[in-house]
Design goal:
Layout: H1 5-11, E1 14-18, H2 22-28, H3 33-53, E2 58-65, H4 73-97, E3 99-104, H5 112-124, E4 132-140, H6 142-158, H7 169-175, E5 185-188, E6 207-210, H8 220-232
Parallel strand pairs: 1-2, 1-5, 2-4, 3-4, 5-6
Helix pairs in contact: 2-3, 3-4, 4-5
Bound molecules: 3-methylbut-3-enyl trihydrogen diphosphate (2 copies) and magnesium ion.
The site of magnesium ion has 2 residues, from loops.
């Protein structure tokens, strides 16, 4: 049964963010694109702080998509370095804040340095009863995830570990690499109104908030506005209410 708004707010919102606009922000400030990504990481820090204050249950951030591999090598290299420095700089604070960090997506192509760093970060923040679940999509694509989970379930059916009849929504969620089952609110900055292959299954009933500002200009007040607007929406989940 679908939860009421009251129940959702009590158990904490699951918010996802497509943090778009770093490149255009850099360009409009006559800076190199990597500076836009750097500024973007600082914004993440502020939004995490506010998410904890707002008692948000989970924040799921789109940091790098499966399609972003088609970007120039110099930009990808800068992003890889940024993942390492961001983890080094922010994990101690996340530990203090009791934030549980989880990366999801296909990570192998990021190389061993990034892989080691994100595993370290996950184990350092493996906190029981966290204040916030912070999930970061890295090398993630929604369609790829659906393909991967389908293969996994199919092989379990073939080996007779599960019956085809037992496949249900919960099982799909469990086999997905996405840590959250259902997203309540999806925010996209940068002015474009598209999903860009993010969380296809989990945003089935998400409210979507498109924000014109580029991600590096997005601030706590913008985030609070998105949450307050979400709270005003009548969520019917198909029912006559
Ligand atoms: C989003 O910002 C961050 C990543 C995709 C890594 P962009 O880099 O896409 O910024 P714009 O859309 O080009 O301005
Ligand atoms: C989506 O932004 C991916 C991330 C924010 C990580 P993109 O800039 O890659 O998406 P498109 O190209 O506008 O669809
Ligand atoms: Mg973009």
């Amino acid at each position: 049964m679908a939860k009421t708004l009251g129940q959702i707010l009590k158990s904490g919102l699951n918010i996802a963010v497509i943090m778009d606009g770093n490149g255009r922000w850099a360009l409009s400030n006559s800076l190199n694109v990597s500076k836009g990504h750097q500024k973007g990481v600082q914004v993440v820090r502020d939004i995490v702080e506010e998410a904890i204050r707002q008692k948000i249950s989970s924040l799921t951030l789109y940091a790098f998509s499966s399609e972003n591999w088609s970007r120039p090598k110099a930009e990808i290299d800068a992003i890889k370095k940024l993942v390492i420095t961001a983890v080094d700089e922010q994990v101690p604070e996340l530990v203090q804040q009791k934030v549980k960090l989880k990366f999801f997506g296909r990570h192998d192509d990021f190389g061993s340095k990034v892989l080691t760093k994100i595993k370290e970060a996950e184990s350092q923040t493996n906190i029981p009863s966290p204040s916030l679940h912070l999930n970061v999509a890295l090398g993630y694509g929604g369609r790829q995830d659906i393909v991967d989970l389908t293969k996994q379930i199919a092989s379990k059916v073939l080996s007779k570990e599960i019956n085809a009849e037992d496949i249900n929504e919960e099982m799909i969620s469990n086999y997905s690499c996405v840590p959250e089952d259902k997203i309540d609110l999806l925010i996209r900055t940068g002015g474009d109104k598209r999903i860009s292959n993010f969380l296809l299954y989990q945003i089935a009933y998400a409210e979507i908030c498109f924000v014109e500002k580029f991600w590096p200009d997005f601030d706590k007040d913008d985030f609070i506005d998105c949450i307050n607007n979400f709270k005003k929406v009548s969520r019917r989940f198909g029912a006559r209410v």
